[in-house]
Amino acid sequence: MLGFKLKDIILYAGVVAAVPWNNDQNEQKPLNLPLSGKQNPSNRGHSRQPNIVFILTDDQDIEMRSLDYLPFVQKHLLNKGTLFRNHFVTTALCCPSRVSLWTGRHSHNTNVTDVNPPYGGYPKFVSQGFNENFLPVWLQQAGYNTYYTGKLFNAHTTQNYNNPHVKGFTASDFLLDPWTYNYLNPAYQRNHEPPILYKGQHTIDILIDKANSLLDDAIASEKPFFLGIAPVAPHSNVEGDISDISDLYKIKFSEPIPLKRHAHLFPDAKVPRTPHFNPDKPSGVNWIAERPQLNKTLVDHNDYYYRQRLRALQGVDELVDGIFKRLEENGQLDNTYIFYTSDNGFHVSQHRLNPGKECGFEDDIRVPFIVRGPGIAEGAISKAVTTHIDVAPTIFELAGIPLREDFDGLAIPLEKSQQKTKRHEHVNVEYWGFAVEEGSFGGTLFWNNTYKSLRIIGENYNLYYSVWCNNEHQLYDLTNDPYQLRNIYPGYEYHDKSITILGAPLAKVVDRLDSLLLVLKSCKGTVCVKPWEKLHPDGDVESLPDALLADFDIFYEQQESVSYSRCEAGYILDAEGPQDALSYKRHGVHWSNWV
After folding, report:
1. DSSP 3-state of 500
2. Which residues 6+ apart lie within 8 Å of 264 measured at CB?
3. From CA 155, how far away is CA 587, in angstroms rounded?
């Protein structure tokens, strides 16, 4: 470490605790110094391959308008890049979502479905073989230098960080459990060095210094580079061992903690009072349908929690501004693609829910996704349906790397000239295990939160369909019910036999949606991009309207339905119900089993 003296270096639960010493006042001060490398203000010219900076926040919403409170994100990204408004995560939980992001595979193909072992976390990522087979490794093989700082995965701890070390990075400085979410006592671990506990220092200020230092090193290397920056904001502050979330008495959730310079901001901000804010009637199914209406104490707390999220994001906003200034000063901005997104969305008071994620509602699965770079339209909004599964293929395309056959996604059309490229209409959403309430009034676990969902968007249709592990169903028509308050699936309160979608009776539409979900819930590779081709190998069906032709009615009525035999906390195949879909044939055999 440079630029300060250490009063003490103590080994604390596997962490070297760095305590900066101020000779004048004998007190701790925030670290605000680069770790290594020197800023190079000269223009070193452009790399043949573009640079990539990827900023990944934690639990950031888009539906509650958090982007409205980030002036530097607006200035550098929204005004100078493209916002992909229909961008979704496929698992609304950080570790599974991040593994999917960096591998280009759905969670049912990574089998990393939770934040901790046995079903998830860094140990599961390693045991599945991905430490040798994910994005930074592939980029290094293609000639990139790769850098990363901040949160990588859950259950990446001060005890297992070197068993093994994360591969694929030229240099790294990771946040580690059990201090990942402790805003004022974070633990970072640089390269292969021991972890350091920064007692009393704010995680975002530390991250800003580390990100700037890594960027300086990346620019000085004169090679194309990838830099991942993953601040923990606006996640809840958490004290205790998050690796054992089953015992919540040992874990203290509280509101995000902003930097002191931002603690006074937005005193009047409240959770947007949209129709699904603490509604008079319960919505959803399973445990969500049983949630009571929030009382005034909880509503007031949730408004405070919302303000703290916005305040905590101001440090991220400053980070973004600093990164752009460094890129511009070093002549690298015109040859760099900058991505800004989150690992999942978030809800606060919607559907009567206290702060949290893990649900299939829009609030949790729809996230900010903004890209700026060469050829990308400025100040644009794209309506293309995109997901985190598409990110790795997109970066491959930018870097000029041939796409892998095991990618479950499709490169995103970034440039203005690509915006009219025809894409699929669907998003496959999946989840296993529990949901948890966060914040000072949180701590409740809701089990049996396992479900499969289909999000499908096209001209004149906008639908969400899900099947839960207790075999309850949801169907929302977001064209007429954008806040997902009226479950129109047959047998539920808002079902009406007179309802039609695309001119078809509801039962007919449900048959098609369920069959499409049956393919997607176990798809691999190109099947995940073109699932209709598995149902209709002749290639005459490419969308929901095509599938609604009367010729196919008997075929879809014969199809097995998506169902579960039981609720499980992870991806256990014999609990997952039918796996094979029938395929329609116009000639010869009318339909056949697809394996």
Report:
1. strand
2. none
3. 53
User: 79: how many CB neighbours lie within 10 A of its CB?
Assistant: 11
Rounded-to-integer distance, Cα 398 and Cα 51, Å: 9
Residues 473, 563: Cα–Cα separation, whole Å:
10
Neighbours of 451 (CB within 10 A): 24
User: E strand or H helix at 548, and its extent?
Assistant: none
If residue 381 lies in a helix (H) or strand (E), which one and from where to where? strand 380-387
Is the omega angle on the peptide bond into residue 123 within 30 degrees of 0, that is, cis?
A: no
Q: Which region holds residue 97: left if phi is over 0, alpha if psi is between -120 and 50, else beta?
A: alpha
Q: Is the dihedral of CA 212, 218, 224, 225 positive or negative?
A: negative
Active site members: 94
Domain spanning 5-274+309-415, CATH architecture: 3-Layer(aba) Sandwich (3.40)
pLDDT tens string, the chain, 595 residues long: the values are: 333 222 222 233 334 444 332 323 323 333 332 333 333 333 333 447 999 999 999 999 999 999 999 999 999 999 999 999 999 999 999 999 999 999 999 999 999 999 999 999 999 999 999 999 999 999 999 999 999 999 999 999 999 999 999 999 999 999 999 999 999 999 999 999 999 999 999 999 999 999 999 999 999 999 999 999 999 999 999 998 766 655 656 788 999 999 999 999 999 999 999 999 999 999 999 999 999 999 999 999 999 999 999 999 999 999 999 999 999 999 999 999 999 999 999 999 999 999 999 999 999 999 999 999 999 999 999 999 999 999 999 999 999 999 999 999 999 999 876 666 789 999 999 999 999 999 888 778 999 999 999 999 999 999 999 999 999 999 999 999 999 999 999 999 999 989 999 999 999 999 999 999 999 999 999 999 999 999 999 999 999 999 999 999 999 999 999 999 999 999 999 999 999 999 998 754 445 444 3
Question: E strand or H helix at 314, and its extent?
Answer: helix 296-329
For residue 370, which of 75, 72, 84 has the smallest C-alpha distance?
Answer: 84
Measured distance CA(532)–CA(519) in Å, rounded: 8
Query: In 375-397, which positions are buried (b, 16+ CB within 10 angstroms) versus exposed (e)?
Result: ebbeeeebebbbbbbbbbbbbbb
Residues 96 and 112: their CA atoms lie apart, in Å, by 5
234 in Cβ contact with 312 (< 8 Å): yes
pTM of the model: 0.91
Strand blocks (E) in 13-165: 15-21, 51-57, 82-88, 145-150
Q: Let me know: does 114 contact 173? Beta carbons within 8 Å.
A: no
Q: CA angle at residue 399 from 393 to 400, to 5 degrees? A: 85
Residue 252 forms beta bridges with which residues? 239
Query: How far is 324 from 330, CA to CA, in rounded Å?
Result: 10
Cβ-based neighbour number of residue 266 at 10 Å: 16
Q: Which residues pair with 476 in a beta bridge?
A: 464
In three-state secondary structure terms, 518 is helix
Q: Which residues fall within 8 angstroms of residue 340, CB to CB, at 6 or more apart?
A: 55, 57, 73, 77, 320, 368, 369, 370, 371
Q: Which two tokens stand for residue 411?
A: 């490169």
In the chain, where are the structural domains located? Answer: 5-274+309-415, 459-593
Residue 486 to residues 285, 296, 380, Cα–Cα distance (Å): 11, 25, 32
Dihedral, 309, 315, 318, 320 alpha carbons, nearest 10: -70
